[in-house]
Structure formats: C-alpha cells, structure tokens
Amino acid sequence: xxxxxxxxFRLEPDKCRLLQGAEPVPLTAKAFDTLVALxxxxxxxxxxxDLLREVWPDTIVEESNLSQNVFMLRKALGDSPExxxxxxxxxxxxxxxxxxxxxxxxxxxx
Length: 110
Hints:
Blueprint: E1 3-6, E2 9-12, E3 17-20, E4 23-24, H1 29-40, E5 46-47, H2 48-55, H3 63-77, E6 87-90, E7 94-97, E8 102-104
Antiparallel strand pairs: 1-2, 1-8, 2-3, 3-4, 5-7, 6-7
Helix pairs in contact: 1-3
C-alpha cells in the first residue's frame, strides 16, 4: 500500500500512523480512517454518506460523528474550516482533501 506525504506530514495507512516530521500525530482510529478515505479520494468530493459508509461500514452513525472526526483532523493538522489547507468543507455535500499529495511507495521500513 502506498504512503502519502503532504506538507510536513506522512500518512502510512498500512502502519496506521500519521507522522509530522518524525513525530507521531495522535488520532483516534476512526479519525485516522477518515483521513485515509479523504486522502485516497482527494481527486473528488467525498459525499458525507460515502464517508460514513467507508469509515463505519457495519454501523449506523449520525453525521455528527463524521463532523467530529473532521474537527479532530483539522485540529491535528493545524487546519481550519475558514482557511482550509487540508480539508475543505463542501456545503451540503461533504469534504475534500485539498492539499498537494505525493504518493510514495511503501519502503517497508520502520
């Protein structure tokens, strides 16, 4: 599975970790899954329903759960809805990952 780099962050889906430089960024499992879904689908708007189904495939949850995850991600990334450098809100539709992403092969290292 590829590794994604954006700004000073490195997202390693296989290892379930987000690094800023060499430092791990603490995220809940569902916030991490939300980030992976947004980054992997960065070429399009992720509809709220699609994100809910992808992050909570076997559970019925409210849209507020998704909003809370996006809030936590923005906080962890140093982002804000007003000046979205990473996650843009598309009103009444969903979210889109808007930062430039470099896709790197997984080096299998640490």
